[in-house]
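Issue: ligand-bound run for beta-D-fucopyranose - logging full I/O for the record.

Environment: standard queue, default settings, no custom constraints.

Inputs:
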Amino acid sequence: MSNADTTAATTAPATETETAATTAPATETETETAATTAPAAASATAVVGSADYRDSGLAFPADFVFGSATASYQIEGAATEDGRGPSIWDTFSHTPGKIWNGDTGDVADDHYHRLETDLDLMKNLGLESYRFSIAWPRIQATGTGPANPAGLDFYTRLVDGLVARGIKPIATLYHWDLPQALEDQGGWANRETAYAFAEYARIMGEALGDKIVTWTTLNEPWCSAYLGYGSGAHAPGRMNGADALAAVHHLNLAHGLAVTALKKVVTNDPAFSITLNLHVIRGDGETGPEAVRQIDGLANRVFLGPLLHGSYPEDVFEDTADVTDWAFVHDGDLELIHQPLDLLGVNYYSTTLVRIWDGVTPRANNDGHKDMGGSPWPGADRIEFLAQPGPYTEMGWNIEPAGLEELLMSLHAEFPTLPLMVTENGAAFADEVTTSVDESGATVSAVHDLERIDYLQRHFTAAHRALSRGVDLRGYQVWSLMDNFEWGYGYSKRFGIVYIDFDTQERILKDSAKWYSTLIATRSIPPLER
Ligand code: FCB
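Outputs:
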């Protein structure tokens, strides 16, 4: 989403102080929150319309779904067990130099073996939904052929365990762990992968299609295509702009084919969705708008166009003409891609600032991703990504809750009838475990992660403001339930609301988990005790 949009122009002011003035005028906030502020005790302490997005006491609608999210390769471990084949992330993480500290997902959070206790943890937190992903190579070791019963059994136990605990299962079919055998045949740059994905979707639809509440085909195809095939920061680590753009198209195609395949076999009435990491892009200076246009095309419109409008943006073809002729888009593909969506998943962490590079000074490259040599922005060598004002999370990402409100508002303006869900939002900070002794003499471990609570409070406030302004926002899945393998950064970045001791696999509730439990129980943003 870009500030070239009309909505963005009114909702994306330069500073947070201005935000309060432009996005939450006093009268509007007071009237609207009257309907949505928590009753009685909570409203006595309600903070509404704060300039820094630190509101509290705001009540969420009764059907708003509070949950948390994870992804298979990041938490499961058991990488070679029960017939699981290798994925591109196994190969990549075992390649020296690709992951910080040489970390791999071989063991991760050992969730595969701790399923029941992790399910109990979710229940104890009061989660209403759990967004997980299915490891394709657990189901089909080489990406094709019959399903592996042990793989189906694991996800059946997971889903049954969620349902038994009253937690809604939100399943993502692809959160980046492509079977290595398919990569060996060209991966997402090969059209056949999209058809293989549809067959895998059919298998999962037959296995779980009576229980899944929301099917998400792909998580962040932007990352799969551009980080996987362009920049080399993610598996499979290729660095070729033409392959990255072919991957964009084949991922879009895979989505459409998978929705069609799922619809034929599911027996309940689920929502069909996809999760995108849409970029909230601001322009700097005179060349800002042109830079925003180009990056908005590559980051956002190349997905939203085919998925929701049934066409690719012409300007993206022009911008990338030196990279590829787009001959991989076949007649009829756009009809296959353009399937009705019941829900759009939105992952949001921070904003992006761009301008046209002057070609003289060193080109700034602060796009928030690891630099492995290639570019995640095919055809955009003239653009530079500028550093943004802090504060920052441990990822170096700027904290900007206004960006979430802006994103939700601009999506709502472009697709007024499309329900939205925040499928990821959260923050990495350098957590520390402290211990104390309780009255019974037992040692108690704690993680006082005030910064993460503050981050979540501000982003829940942003989501609530979007709701108050008419956005059909259905829920919020905090990233992440537990610390995990953070891709190229290995275990060095902790996003969990539950702390994982990677030596002992002990789970420790961080203060943010307790804060989130309170939010869910009261359906209202708790005041932050400072
Ligand atoms: C998103 C990914 C998720 C996690 C968060 C921090 O891009 O979908 O797996 O890595 O970022």
